[in-house]
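Side project, low priority. Logging it here so it doesn't get lost.
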Amino acid sequence: MSRLNPRWFTLLAAAALVSGCSKNEKTPATPANTASGEAAAPSVAGKVDPELTALLKKFVAQKGRMPTSIPELNAVTDSIPRPPEGYAYEIDAAAQEVKLVKR
C-alpha cells in the first residue's frame, strides 16, 4: 500500500477549500404581483383595515396571487363595505395589506 504524497494531499485540501468557499447568494423572495417581472409596487400610505387585509390574505392563499382590485376580493366574501366619504380602499401589494386612503 503506497503512501499519499504530501504534495497531493496539500493540492487536494486546497481544491476542497476553494470549492467550498463560494459565495452562496440567495435570491430575495418576490411578491406575488411581481412574479411576471413587473416592478414592485411602492408601499401605500394609509390606515390598515384588518378585516379587508384578512380577506386579502385569504384570497392570496386560495388563488396564489394578489388581486388586481378591491372588487376582486368578492371571490372570497359576500360583500365589501363601502369606505367612508372621501376615502377609498387600496391594496398595498408590498405589505400585502388593504389600507384606507384619502382620495
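Brief comment: The first helix runs from residue 6 to 20.
Revisit when time allows.
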